[in-house]
Amino acid sequence: MTITSAHRANLLAQARAVLDANWKAGFTVPALRQYPHQWSWDSAFIAVGYARYDQARAEQELRSLFATQWADGRVPHIVFHNADPAAPYFPGPAFWQIERSPHAPAGRYSSGIVQPPIHATAVRHIVRHAADRDRALAYAAEMFPRLRAWHDWLYRERDPRGEGLAYISHPWESGQDNSPLWDPVLARMALRPEQIPPYRRADTRAVDPAQRPLDSDYDCYIFLVDFFRQRAYDEGRIYADGCPFVVQDVLFNTLLCQAEQDMAELARLIGADAAPFNARAAATAAAINTKLWDEARGFYVDYDLAAGLAMPVPALAGFAPLYAGIPDAGRARQMTAYLGSPAFGFGPDAATGYPASSYDRNAPGYSPRRYWRGPTWIQMNWLLMHGLTAYGYDDLAKRLRGAIIDLPQVGGFREYFDPETGAGYGAEAFSWTAALLIDVLNGEPTDD
Ligand code: 9WN
Q1: Is the CB of 173 under 6 A from ligand 1?
Q2: What is the pTM assigned to this prediction?
Q3: What pLDDT shows up at residue 447?
């Protein structure tokens, strides 16, 4: 699968136009109408794309996110660059009320929860592809203490038993909001109406509700935010008071493990001590391999710390550890036997569609269009593509790379895609779809 240089240039121009339209003089919104603020892991993926053609923007993207890092080290999952944003998004600053926490930065506005820690990985990517390497190394040195404080917060506040695994306490923290992974945990919450503060959703104005989470999911999301703000975003209190959502998530910890490996490399480049980062990466990899591996199913599963139960749900995220080099060759073989099947959109021919479906297509509750319950997502493809390449599964990696390039052409620069037809769903002109296409096209050979 190769493309001509003219075709590649055309796609790159389209992708850059998406990012230009979403650039707000200092940061990039994921999508103008649906997500009109700055999101944490989106900005990291967006910086990966900018790193290929605009080093200054790549650097600025993460600098602006970390400008709202809390005093305790947490990096909020949304930064609102205005106190009273005109652009509708719920929940906004008035609902989060981060000023209840002594750690929230004064005069700045954000959510009080986090998203997967892929920022150190993005900074390493910026250094790797920098046109001006000296400036990139100075940037790495500038970001280094902030990234370390962020990771320290995760290991300090989210790993109460010192297992080497950080927990998440909200589906939004996973980045995969309504994944079937969370169904049993949310069902157990069994909320009564009086426990849910009054609210009105804003996410179904621009996007068809059939492509978004259910109202019953949103009730849980909002209940949890209320639970956190009532406890002033104090992680110790939230955990001690029996937060009902406490999950050691495979994808989140995989990205943390890789980010620690990238911190070790950044440390080496700027002359700091790499050893503590290597040690934490190794501890997290070992914990993922011992606690989260499911031998019978042949992939990794989340662990529900509140209930003390493994969560054997066939979500694509269960294969994420390939990205951080966590499984040994035998486990990788077991994993790819299942991952590389029609269940995730791989198959003998193109008729099986566009891998990789975010959830097993034969599992109960699969939907080709409802958000994280089946659609193909570009950033998941990008992560798995790298993992599969590193383990030598070049054919599967090629299929994922092909889908990253084909889907924006079939379905538009959308947020997610129908794994069977390639139709685009969710937000339009979505930033990381464009950014990761740019990254992939830069490594793609042309046939002329
Ligand atoms: C809640 C911005 C974000 C992504 C997430 C995606 C979605 C938000 C929402 O959009 O979540 O954080 O309102 O649905 O699930 O991965 O970071 O693109």
Answers
A1: no
A2: 0.98
A3: 78
